[in-house]
Write a structure and sequence with these properties.
single chain; about 200 residues; alpha/beta; 6-stranded mixed beta sheet; 7 helices; about 40% helix; globular
Length: about 200
């Protein structure tokens, strides 16, 4: 499916729901990057979409690794298409990690890739006053929200309400263990034929 500005996406509809009322309520737009904060925001957006019947639009912004200015010095369509495919895989992986596919019970889901900076892509996508924009925020070491470019610029420039969802907090010793965890570490041991 083709979106605005050359963005691509995938949409699907779950049974039930009232599409006419959802169109009048506006969309739920969530920024996705694959981080824990964006996964928390994606899950919060899916919960709200399920309860309100609004359509869910997940946006992943991407740019060439050296930025657009560097890309203009040596443009290469093959590499740009490769980076776009990597961004699409990251967006699909975020849905798989959060829900195992599309979120259940959501009326309409669209996945959109936008070639732009994240804050600008989110503000341009959430252009209607009845939209709601949902972003994840990381917590800094001192317990304050991390004021990065997206976290600082989106609320200042958005034309719709913005909901910020904090990333889950893990103690330091658990962060180290999670970093080195494998999928086998999450399989219940002793049941279902799993190795004990």
């Amino acid at each position: 499916m083709r979106g605005r500005g050359g963005a691509t996406g995938r949409s699907g509809a779950a049974p039930g729901g009232n599409g006419g009322d959802a169109a009048q309520q506006g969309r739920l737009i969530v920024g996705v990057s694959g981080s824990l904060a964006s996964l928390a925001a994606l899950r919060a957006a899916a919960r709200e979409a399920r309860s309100s019947g609004r359509p869910l639009l997940a946006v992943l912004a991407w740019e060439p690794p050296e930025g657009e200015a560097g890309y203009m010095l040596r443009p290469d369509r093959i590499w740009a298409e490769n980076w776009r495919r990597e961004a699409a895989a990251r967006l699909d992986r975020a849905f798989d990690e959060a829900f195992g596919g599309d979120p259940p019970g959501v009326t309409a889901v669209e996945r959109r890739l936008v070639r732009d900076r994240p804050w600008r892509a989110l503000c341009r996508t959430a252009c209607r006053p009845d939209d709601r924009l949902i972003i994840g925020t990381r917590v800094a070491r001192r317990g304050l929200f991390h004021y990065g470019g997206t976290r600082r610029r989106v609320p200042a420039r958005a034309t719709c309400p913005v909901l910020t969802v904090p990333a889950p907090h893990f103690p330091a010793y658990l962060r180290t263990r999670l970093r080195h965890a494998t999928p086998a570490d999450f399989v219940p041991k002793g049941t279902g034929g799993a190795p004990a």
